[in-house]
């Protein structure tokens, strides 16, 4: 039994890797663990595997539920399941929590095997390249020589692009949603404010909060408020919240008092996030975002980078996404066209901002589904 | 002696008002003080007075220096002085620190006369209406029946609009730069994040930090970083900072380490601000911004509000200002036109974002100057 339209009940799997991992930063991990989920069945030719790469706050739980009573399905259940864009009747879908994450894979909140203490701030900085390398090791273990598709939105889209550029013979189709070839100064600045919010929280304790049974919840909450706000569009926020107030007439104005609906909403989002996410992971993930630059190894030429890809490419941007604007996606598309590569591009008209890739916008869903149906397995 | 192009050396003046002030919030102040500056000379007819209204972080020191050795002139010296847009050879210019401010006028960091302790968080919430009322009391004292012009940018522009709507017979010309009839949900959300940054700082001490000789510098710094970032444009930031790094190669990535120039810049701005500004004032000022709505007393009809004005109006917006976008200025202009009022509007092409009104953008300066030259005195 399962919820209608969802994959069967899901059980996460832990994959333990004992090989030493040489990270892009120059540091090493003496082995690591990945927590993963799969949906659908790998075919006999092992040709129908699809990799889902998660974004900043995502994890391995992309679709389905662990228990029928779970109130919510995985974070991308709208697009991963039987008959959905990433159709689990056709595809064997692999999803994982990246290293440095906080949902089970090796990361700041797991134990450092050398000290048997939580890694905390001593977990090494990771990069998109490191994530893709570990994803390739996971593919090896699962017997997947080449992915039918690698798919991701936002920071996940950057991983998909890195796959296409650095492992061209292992990716037959690549989907980059609401992504960018690298961050702008403004993007970096928003990430930096989020980091400073965490670093300024006295409960951060130089990153050793877990050891001290503390949590920099205020900083993490602020970081999330900043992030979440930038994932919405101004028009979308006006439509949703306007200037509606929550309690009291609008002239009862004392500092800190909850007045506008949008304030209440953001505080709630921040607070929820601060109970489920790890502050050190937030620092690592935003740094990985900042440092990603798909053209860095190609003389800063995006078309030189795209020239080495051999995947069929789908790039989708969202009109009101001002964090990773359509202009950034068009840079990718222009570089792919300049390199003579097969690319489809769509700019979806929506007020949903950057978060639109997580939602069921009709044109987006239709286009994404149709494109995925043409993925040869 | 003075710096070339600047007003003569300036001396701030303290104006003490003993009348009880009934604030829009319903609370009262048993008297208050305003710190003011004036530039130029009031003519015999008292017809050449111009009022400058400051924005969130501004104060009374709009032009000139206190001492020849001051490293910087007032915050709007580019536009206030002999031969400048606000020409002190023609106009008698009045500038003040609004109540609730932190630069000398009655506010959270001044003494509550009843307790002889700093007001701190007990200073009443103030509004744009309160500020304009106190500015009108200042005009009375100075013998100014009607202003040749009331001028402001951002939150200052809102004060200028309030003057034009609520004191139409006392304003002959009104200039609203980078302003808006009211904030959007997104604007309120940015203000709320700034407030939460302050309120989350353990040194905020429920607002009584001054009494305890503390300062919520981390929160205030974060608040400023958020604000400052939103006053710049994405393109402007890309041109200015790009992805330039400050120290170490970009792969030496440890959390909190300074890497990108834009991070270093924002941290510096935040830190500087936290040493000069008062956190309780920041809370009050952002709340005043959030609650401003020029149409609120006019059945939420902007054109009904504009219909009661009798000033010649100048509205200027800046193309890359996404905090108070040109669309918000056009709402004002459309309402003024609908009401049959004389309005000039310009949208200045610039990458400087919201802060452009503080800068010397050639088209802006030229247009503003030409319009001010046609102000009849």
Layout of helices and strands:
The structure is a homodimer of 377-residue chains.
Chain A: E1 13-22, E2 28-39, E3 49-53, E4 80-81, E5 86-87, E6 92-96, E7 111-112, E8 117-118, H1 128-142, E9 149-153, H2 155-166, E10 173-177, H3 185-200, H4 217-231, H5 234-240, H6 261-276, H7 279-291, H8 302-307, E11 312-318, H9 326-338, E12 343-348, H10 362-373
Helix pairs in contact in A: 1-2, 3-4, 3-7, 4-6
Report on this structure.
The structure is a homodimer of 377-residue chains. By secondary structure, chain A is α/β, with parallel strands linked by helices. Chain A folds into two domains: 13-182 and 293-373, Alpha/Beta hydrolase fold, catalytic domain (Rossmann fold, 3-Layer(aba) Sandwich), CATH 3.40.50; 188-286, Rna Polymerase Sigma Factor, Chain: A (Orthogonal Bundle), CATH 1.10.1740.110. Chain A has helices at residues 128-142, 155-166, 185-200, 217-231, 234-240, 261-276, 279-291, 302-307, 326-338, 362-373, and strands spanning 13-22, 28-39, 49-53, 80-81, 86-87, 92-96, 111-112, 117-118, 149-153, 173-177, 312-318, 343-348. The first copy, chain A, has an eight-stranded mixed sheet, sandwiched between helices. In chain A, strands 4-5 form a two-stranded parallel sheet. In chain A, strands 7-8 form a two-stranded antiparallel sheet. The radius of gyration of chain A is 21 Å and the shape is globular. Chain A starts with 12 loop residues before the first strand and ends with a helix. At the A-B interface, helix 3, helix 4, helix 5, helix 6 and helix 7 of A face helix 3, helix 4, helix 5, helix 6 and helix 7 of B.
